[in-house]
């Protein structure tokens, strides 16, 4: 189905064939923490983990989801007179509504979209957060399974809390950045890298990128 979607975007010719070759006889291994590396097996679903094309292919495949949800009336939050009810970043998806009924309706629409497009959503990794609310909310379901409500959630590697407070998030990013800086210094000591430019390039790659992770969101 992915190739049909790409053809719909007029992705054809040599570029499409190159993508298809990447997924022909896709062989993967799993490095289990206690059992070691498994034997190889065919992977015929999803996109390659860590592949640079992963976010692009995933976004193109989900492009129809935005149009599908656009057709539903919902009470989405507004920012500068713009309704924002859907966030798509890399391979993460977030629905934002101001009412319980509206969120459940969008979850139902998402489920129908997944059925029609052959997608499987990991309900165990899916969570619900109610911001600035102390009242217990209704139970939300997806495909008949209840979705757990949490007060903190790691979204795109940053911690999000139900209260409008970014202190925990900033502490988390600061700790991660310091670890990256320590790793950078440690790696430069052994090969005795003394030139400033390699230090600068490695700092931008390892530390600066960590500090600014998900700043777009």
In short:
By secondary structure, the protein is an alpha+beta fold. It is built from seven helices and 13 strands. The strands form six sheets. Strands 9-11-10 form a three-stranded mixed β-sheet. A two-stranded antiparallel sheet has the order 1-4. Strands 2-3 form a two-stranded antiparallel ribbon.
- Average pLDDT rating: 80
**SS strand fraction:** 15-25%
Uncertain parts = none
User: How much helicity do the residues have?
Assistant: 40-55%
Per DSSP E runs of 2 or more residues, the count of β-strands stands at 13
Largest sheet: 3 strands, mixed
The helix/strand series, from N terminus to C terminus, equals: HHEEEEHHEEEEHEEEEEHH
Helix count equals: 7
Q: Using the CA coordinates, give the radius of gyration.
A: 21 Å
Side by side, the strands of the main sheet go 9-11-10
Query: How far apart lie the N and C ends?
Result: 30 Å
Structural class: alpha+beta
Describe the structure.
A hairpin with a 3-residue loop joins strand 2 and strand 3. It contains seven helices and 13 strands. By secondary structure, it is α+β, with helices and mostly antiparallel strands. The protein has helices at residues 2-8, 13-23, 54-61, 63-70, 100-117, 167-189, 196-211, and strands spanning 27-28, 31-32, 36-37, 41-42, 78-79, 82-83, 86-89, 92-95, 127-128, 140-142, 145-149, 152-155, 158-161. The strands form six sheets. The protein has a three-stranded mixed beta sheet with strand order 9-11-10.
For the structure shown, list the relevant keywords.
217 residues; alpha+beta; 3-stranded mixed beta sheet; two-stranded antiparallel ribbon; 42% helix; globular
């Amino acid at each position: 189905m992915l190739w049909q979607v790409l053809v719909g975007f007029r992705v054809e010719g040599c570029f499409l064939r190159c993508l298809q070759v990447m997924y022909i006889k896709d062989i993967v291994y799993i490095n289990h923490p206690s059992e070691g590396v498994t034997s190889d097996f065919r992977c015929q679903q999803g996109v390659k983990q860590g592949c640079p094309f992963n976010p692009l292919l995933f976004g193109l495949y989900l492009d129809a989801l935005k149009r599908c949800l656009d057709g539903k009336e919902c009470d989405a939050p507004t920012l500068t007179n713009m309704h924002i009810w859907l966030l798509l970043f890399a391979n993460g998806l977030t629905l934002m509504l101001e009412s319980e009924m509206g969120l459940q309706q969008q979850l139902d629409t998402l489920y129908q979209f997944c059925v029609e497009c052959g997608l499987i959503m990991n309900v165990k990794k899916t969570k619900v957060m109610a911001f600035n609310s102390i009242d217990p909310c209704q139970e939300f379901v997806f495909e008949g399974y209840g979705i757990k409500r949490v007060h903190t959630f790691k979204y795109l590697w940053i911690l999000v809390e139900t209260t409008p407070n970014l202190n925990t998030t900033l502490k988390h990013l600061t700790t991660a950045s310091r670890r990256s800086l320590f790793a950078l210094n440690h790696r430069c000591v052994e090969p005795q890298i003394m030139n400033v430019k390699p230090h600068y390039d490695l700092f931008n790659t390892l530390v600066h990128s960590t500090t600014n992770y998900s700043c777009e969101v």
